[in-house]
Structures are given as structure tokens and as C-alpha cells.
Design goal:
Layout: E1 2-6, E2 9-12, E3 17-24, E4 32-38, E5 45-50, E6 56-58, E7 66-71, E8 76-81, E9 90-97, E10 113-114, E11 118-123
Parallel strand pairs: 2-11
Antiparallel strand pairs: 1-3, 3-8, 4-5, 4-9, 5-6, 7-8, 9-10, 9-11
Length: about 120
């Protein structure tokens, strides 16, 4: 399994970015795919996940600002990030699992496949 994340960059506060994660060996419409992030000096944090290609879950701090979508034909998931804040600055990691259960989706240990990370920097 390989996850290729892209789309990070530098953006001003209030701006938008779209992250992409193309998966090989996983199926976006069937497997669980999502995003974690890690800010400097902080622990890795759950951001959003599409559970088995159906319901999507978000951390409270991004609800109403971030949205996940997918292109099943390209086996790619996206994280649309709007109204970005400086506290959103982090390395964003794409994650996937074929077997994770719902109660574990917010735990990094539940995911056995990780992408390389893409840096998002939001300036104030």
C-alpha cells in the first residue's frame, strides 16, 4: 500500500488549500482513509476520516471549515481546508486502514498505512 499526499503550502490566515491523497493498494470507496496532523512540538492529532467510504468524521476544531471528498475513479481523497487559521499549521498525513473499527478512528495507532506528510503553513 502506498499513500501519496500533496497540496500543502503557505497560505495567509483565512485562506484555503486542498490536500490530495492518492492511494494504491487501498480503495477509497471501501477502506477507511483520512488525515492526521502534527504541529511542531505537539502530538499527532486526528483531523478527519471517511470511515469505510461512507460517513465522514471531523475533529471539532475543523468542523465547518474542512471537508473531505473522494474521487473513487482515481482512488483519491481530498481535504478541502477553508478559513485556515495559524493553529492549523502542521504536517498533514494521509492515513488508511482496511480493518479499523469505528471506535478507533481517532487513534493514530489504528492506522497501519501512512503517507509521507505534506506541510501546511498558515501565516497570521
Amino acid at each position: 500500500v502506498q499513500l501519496q499526499a500533496s497540496g500543502g503550502g503557505l497560505v495567509q490566515s483565512g485562506g484555503s488549500l486542498r490536500l490530495s491523497c492518492e492511494g494504491s493498494g487501498v480503495t477509497s470507496g471501501r477502506d477507511t482513509m483520512g488525515w492526521f496532523r502534527q504541529a511542531p512540538g505537539k502530538e499527532r492529532e486526528f483531523v478527519a476520516v471517511s470511515f469505510r467510504g461512507s460517513n465522514t468524521y471531523y475533529v471539532d476544531s475543523v468542523k465547518g471549515r474542512f471537508t473531505m471528498s473522494r474521487d473513487s475513479a482515481k482512488n483519491t481523497v481530498f481535504l478541502h481546508m477553508n478559513s485556515l487559521k495559524p493553529e492549523d499549521t502542521a504536517v498533514y498525513y494521509c492515513v488508511a486502514s482496511r480493518s479499523i473499527i469505528l471506535s478507533s478512528i481517532k487513534s493514530a495507532r489504528g492506522y497501519n498505512f501512512w503517507g509521507q506528510g505534506t506541510l501546511v503553513t498558515v501565516s497570521s
